[in-house]
Amino acid sequence: MGEAGICDRIWRDARLVTCVPGQPGVIERGVVAARDGRILYAGEASLAPPLRAAETVDCGGRLVTPGLIDAHTHLVHAGDRSGEAARRLRGESYAAIAAAGGGILSTVRATRAADQAALVASALPRLDALLAEGVTTVEIKSGYGLALEPERRMLRAARTLGERRRVRVRTSFLGAHAVPPEHAGHADAYVDEIVGAMLPALAAEGLVDAVDAFCERIAFSPAQVARVFEAARALGLPVKLHADQLSDGGGGALAARHGALSADHLEHLGEDGIAAMAGAGTVAVLLPGAFYFLRETVAPPVAALRRAGVPMAVATDCNPGTSPLTSLLLAMNLAAVLFGLTPEECLAGVTREAARALGLARETGMLAPGLACDLAIWDVTSVEALVCRMGPNPLQARVLGGE
Ligand code: NIG
Ligand code: FE
């Protein structure tokens, strides 16, 4: 504890959900103490060491959880694909629209035409919607530029968002999201460019926290993804994967073989993939917004993931095509209703497991000594009340790094 429990700020009379494995679901009369942005103590008031702080916040019995983490977003993009969504509602498939030059490539055209300021300006309202619901950490992908310059603009826009708002931003380079039109029919040549030019340059500029790819028949093959992952490893960067979303392409197992932080989507994940992910400690990031919006019928194998002990995160996948969703609370509700996660799993999925999916397990995602003091304070008294509603926003306050 050091210096007789002197801290900057104490939150008292909280119903605390620490999300630390093994601790009680809710700790009544909890207290959180922070110094220099880090948690000194989080737990029962009666067990706390003597604490003295310049400022004490009375939580009035409110629920206090770790600040929420959205571990998978495409928040930075331009354009509007609602017309495409309407076509899908009339019966066209996502794959058919993509094959005809729509889908991801339609957002690529709009994003390439936007300058950095426009990308930041259009993403800010989406970011603000997440923050208004208690998000303190957000992952933001590139992947609608698909060439060095526009990918750089997207990643710089993501960094700028982190400067314009009080939020921790983690970037993922998703150059391998789709084959750009100038390389149509020559995916391998585009992968050459990703591994030989784009990734090294962007990593050298400090714009890349992780490397992502889309492994799918309409995107990149396992062999192409493996080349991207090897290039990432050579640069010391962690990897993650859009895997087994539309078909079982062995994506979960591929991600696990490369020690990926996470494999995301996973509707069609098979038994081998589950076992491989369990062995590697790869987090399953579930994206119920895309499942819902694409009107998918095959849900990720949640019961088998649970049995195998694969950690499960939940994220919005906020993107203009398959998941135009800016509410992590609604993503939690969808994960409960559509995928069968318990309310506690939903909360862990947007805190502890989401932190793991971003390589931030030692930084945030739980209320434990030494971690950043990232809190969400809610005008409800139970985790169920956070998850089992659609629409209300009970956030009362958001704390990042003790502020
Ligand atoms: O996470 N699966 C691929 N990528 C996005 C969709 C992107 C898009 O359609 O623009 C996703 O669902
Ligand atoms: Fe995605």
Can you tell me about this structure?
The chain has 403 residues and is an alpha/beta fold. The chain is 36% helix and 22% strand. The chain contains 15 helices and 15 strands. An 8-stranded parallel sheet has the order 6-7-8-9-10-11-12-13. Strands 1, 2, 3, 4, 5, 14 and 15 form a 7-stranded mixed sheet that branches. β11 (262-265), α9 (271-280) and β12 form a beta-alpha-beta unit. The mean pLDDT is 97. N-(iminomethyl)-L-glutamic acid (NIG) is lined by residues 103-104, 107, 214, 242, 245, 290, 317, 319-323.
Tally of DSSP β-strands: 15
Please give the radius of gyration in angstroms.
21 Å
Bound chemical compounds: N-(iminomethyl)-L-glutamic acid, fe (iii) ion
Strand order of the largest sheet: 6-7-8-9-10-11-12-13
Q: Biggest β-sheet: count, sense, barrel?
A: 8 strands, parallel
- Structural class designation: alpha/beta
Assess the beta-strand content as a share of residues: 15-25%
N-to-C series of helices and strands: EEEEEEHHHHEHEHEHEHEHEHHEHHHEHE
Termini separation: 20 Å
Task: Give the CA-based shape.
Answer: globular
**What fraction, in percent, of the residue positions are helical?**
25-40%
Number of helices: 15
Q: What integer is the average pLDDT? A: 97
Low-confidence stretches: none
Annotation keywords:
403 residues; 15 helices; binds fe (iii) ion; globular; alpha/beta; 8-stranded parallel β-sheet; 7-stranded mixed β-sheet; single chain; binds N-(iminomethyl)-L-glutamic acid
Brief account:
The protein has 15 helices and 15 strands.
